[in-house]
Amino acid sequence: MNKIKGVLYDDGVIVWDIESAKMLYKNGFYGKYLGVRKAKELEMDKPLQLSLIEAVYLFEKNILEVYLGGRKLSYYELRKIASSKILLFEDIYIVYKDLRDRGYVVKSGMKFGATFAVYEHGPGIDHAPFLVHVLSFEDELDPLEIVRAGRLSHSVRKKFVIAVVDPISRKPYYYIFKWFG
After folding, report:
1. Phi, psi of 137, deg, nearest 5
2. Active-site residues: which are they?
3. Strands, DSSP E only, in the chain?
């Protein structure tokens, strides 16, 4: 199988080939169609914008190759670029990869104040049952932030999950908060 070609832009990777874009979106809900806020269909005749996290994952899975200025980047160059642009990239990527490898569809959770919104099937098919927020292993949990996150997740009917990556084993751990009351 030929790898899909993506072009690195400031904060993401664009897949300009329409058929490749459709294939990525249809087979995993990767990225978002360029210029489309919320896709109503699986296939659209538009390029696809991947986040740097998605691009690193697809590169690692041998599905994507990424170019910058006509030059093909190595996996390590792409990771280095992502690390320079995304705070806590390594931990966030480990959690993303773990969730994707478990079969979940993982999208940005920014509009919910979390790192990820996690779907069992995909946006437009089901609602994300989980909000996952990645914290550094060394971060202290502020009780006020937990209450805020709990209230928000409860109001949108989602389970709130805090993910941390063990600094030695590099294994992610998940802590689920349920809202009572």
Report:
1. -55, -30
2. 119, 127, 158
3. 4-9, 12-15, 32-33, 48-51, 64-68, 71-72, 105-108, 116-119, 130-134, 159-165, 172-177
pTM here?
0.90
Residues 122, 105 contacting (CB under 8 angstroms): yes
**Integer Cα distance of 9 and 51 in angstroms:** 10
How many angstroms separate the CA atoms of 118 and 179, rounded?
A: 18
Report angle CA 99, 102, 106 to the nearest 5 degrees: 35
Task: Tell the residue number behind the tokens 């751990």, with chain if given.
Answer: 173
Name the burial class of residue 7, with classes exposed (0-12), middle (13-18) and buried (19+) by CB atoms within 10 angstroms of its CB. middle
What's the CA dihedral at 51, 8, 10, 131 to 10 degrees?
Answer: 10
The sign one gets for the Cα dihedral 68, 71, 75, 76 is negative
Beta bridge partner(s), residue 9: 12
Q: What is the pLDDT along the chain (181 residues), one digit of tens a residue?
A: 689 999 999 889 999 999 999 999 999 999 999 988 777 778 889 999 999 999 999 999 999 999 999 999 999 999 999 999 999 999 999 999 999 999 999 999 888 888 999 999 888 777 888 889 999 988 777 776 766 666 666 655 667 888 999 999 999 999 887 666 5
